[in-house]
Specification:
It is a single chain. 4% of the residues lie in helices and 39% in strands. By secondary structure, the chain is mostly beta strands. The strands form seven sheets. Strands 11-12-13-14-28-24-23-18-21 form a nine-stranded antiparallel β-sheet. A six-stranded antiparallel β-sheet has the order 17-26-25-22-19-20, with no helix packed on it. A five-stranded antiparallel β-sheet has the order 1-2-3-4-5, with no helix packed on it. The relative contact order is 0.17. The model has no long low-confidence stretch (mean pLDDT 95).
């Protein structure tokens, strides 16, 4: 008898006794995804190459203990506010709110106890290859106002597209910015930065502008044109060539850790062409489509080989690339950016699709 499209099994228990499950989603295309209830982590995304050989294309940690330790958000759902809030402070409706700083004096990914470290409730979605995760964040959680209820829906379709759909509601005005923080390496886990690894991947981004940042990754101000800079990814470019460019923005971050301003959607479904990542060696290709206005491209600048996967492969600097669809960093303090304010009676919604294919 074939295994169900969504299968649950134990993955461990947190120090405070909460059980954590791993949900495996299977598509007829041969793509499979593994999702943990801890942090909503995308633990694996297994994709065939042009020869039909399958490998996971996202970095992972070996066990629950590793995920619960110091971790750079591998595969996690991050919130309440993905990316940075300058100084950990913002004012909403005349009241100042404080989020604990955890990154060079700024609040990153919701503060030191964000959604990436929570155990989410989970349930299957009918007979589909899908799981729905739910999390309730109480009023005052990490300094954010309002009780926020978030659902994150992971689903695999018959073509092998993995969609991540968020919905959130609140009982008080608050700010919300949610994303998935998967680290992609289309050559397969263990190949690192190269040769044949991520620096040999080709990347394009559907944006003509990006947000330059300070040395501690806070936007300097309005978006700037990418033309004539290493941030011009309007046509595919090899990542290794991009990161070798002599540019102060790249030098300060030791690679990409920047938000691109995506072009408007072309169709009524609201999805924008956000990014295309391609690995010539394996033939694997990943298209990213989203309803969000921006995408943070992060080239794993702070990995140092101290973390490993279940096979002992070290996670190295520039050994993966994150394609985090989201609103803009520090938007609660920037009235000229698209608003991230959520009010009672309205619903935050976003959808991102990771479309896996392989070249012939």
């Amino acid at each position: 008898m074939p295994r169900p499209a969504a299968h649950r099994e134990p993955f461990g228990t947190t120090p405070d006794g909460r059980p954590v499950d791993r949900w495996t989603l299977r598509s007829p295309s041969g793509v499979t995804a593994e999702v943990l209830t801890y942090g909503g982590v995308l633990h694996a995304l297994t994709v065939p190459d042009r020869a039909g050989h399958s490998r996971s294309v996202v970095l992972a940690l070996p066990d629950l203990e590793a995920y619960a330790g110091p971790s750079p958000y591998f595969g996690a759902l991050v919130g309440r506010y993905a990316n940075r809030i300058a100084g950990g402070r913002f004012t909403l409706d005349g009241q100042e709110h404080h989020v604990p700083a955890n990154d060079h004096g700024h609040a990153l990914h919701g503060g030191p106890d964000g959604f990436d470290g929570r155990v989410w409730d989970a349930e299957p979605v009918g007979d589909d290859a899908a799981v729905r995760l739910t999390l309730r964040s109480p009023d005052g959680d990490m300094g954010f106002p309002g009780e926020l209820t978030v659902t994150a829906h992971y689903a695999l379709d018959e073509r092998g597209t993995l969609s991540v759909t968020f919905e959130a509601v609140t009982d008080r005005p608050t700010v919300v910015n949610l994303t998935n923080h998967a680290y992609f390496n289309l050559a397969g886990t263990g190949t690192g930065a190269g040769p044949g690894g991520v620096l040999d991947h080709w990347l394009s981004v559907g944006a003509d502008r990006y947000l330059p940042v300070t040395a501690d990754a806070i936007p300097l101000g309005p978006a700037q044109e990418v033309a004539g800079t290493p941030f011009d990814l309007t046509a595919p470019r090899r990542l290794g060539d991009c990161l070798a460019a002599d540019d102060p923005q790249l030098k300060d971050a030791d690679g990409y850790d920047h938000c691109w301003v995506l072009r408007p959607p072309e169709n009524s479904d609201g999805l924008r062409a956000a990014a295309l990542l391609r690995d010539p060696a394996s033939g694997r290709e990943l298209q990213v489509w989203t309803t969000e206005p921006g995408i943070q491209v992060y080239t794993a600048n702070h990995l140092d080989g101290s973390l490993t996967d279940a096979d002992g492969n070290r996670h190295e600097r520039h050994g993966a690339v994150c394609l985090e669809t989201q609103h803009f960093p520090d938007a609660p303090n920037r009235p000229d950016y698209p608003s991230t304010v959520l009010r009672p009676g309205t619903v935050f919604r976003s959808r991102t699709e990771f479309r896996s294919t392989h070249l012939g």
